[in-house]
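Q: I'm writing a short explainer about DUF3027 domain-containing protein for a general audience and would like to include a description of its predicted shape. Could you first generate the structure from this sequence?
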Amino acid sequence: MAAVKDAVLERAVDLAREVALEIAEVPDDVGEYLGAVRESERLVSHRFACTARGYRGWAWTVTVARVPRGRTATVCEAELLPGEDAILARPWVPWSERLRPGDIGAGDVLPFRPDDPRLEPGYTPTGDPEVDEVAIDELALARVRVLSPQGREEAAQRWYRGSRGPSTAGAVASAGACWSCGFLVPLQGSLGQLFAVCANEWSPDDGKVVSLDHGCGAHSETDVEPGPSEWPAPDPLVDELAIDVVERGAPADEVAQAPVAEPVLDEAAAEPVADEAAAEPVADEPVADEPAEPVADEPAVTDEPATDGS
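A: Of course. Here's the predicted structure. Afterward I'll give you a sentence or two in plain language.
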């Protein structure tokens, strides 16, 4: 039911302005009159524009009332309220919910959350060596609380959609996926089906959790295509102190086409040598008959051995 018009309260504009000037730190912050609002029966609010810096759309609001059959307005409350186009602060959020990745620095401690939905109670040893060995040593469940299914799902979605998932610019430009890289260290448990840890010091993801279909330029099995060099080929360097420099002879084809020179004999050998006997005639000289030397008789040779004469 709409409030009935109240002439006594609606005429109390001057009273409402005086109250607005009293609560304002600077009187000039109280601007023009914006009108009256009927809150309920015998209850009216007068609004004045706020001209203070940073309070656009706000209004000084003074609420007046009167008793039944009364002819005097009484101030109930006065305050600065926002309008429809006012600049408002964001809704208040608890500190634990305002935290974002990277907000926690050295020395900061998060408050304990006993009802964290991302965690669930850990494993309690049963005393059976076989069962406890699997749960504690292999599954690493010997903790007060471990990841719950919700915690694992949130972590998987956050990692997969983050900067080390398959949709990043480096992963799209990579020639090979992380699952085939030799620097990949697999994770245990259900998260190991999709994620692993990079152990390549040259990779931008070294020491980070990456998805198996992620990739980068430091893949162990890929290589860059060799490109042509823009620098001219340098002249070969010859160490003349270690080797003997020999001038290169004429090419083989030039040697084959060169005319073969005829052998030249020695001039002395080329001239024919005449027979000395024929060249110089010798006069016939008489040869004297030389007496023949007597030849002694030689003893006959027999097969019998010689005997001593004595």
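A: For your explainer, you could say: Confidence is low (pLDDT under 50) at residues 305-310.
Q: Perfect, that's easy to follow.
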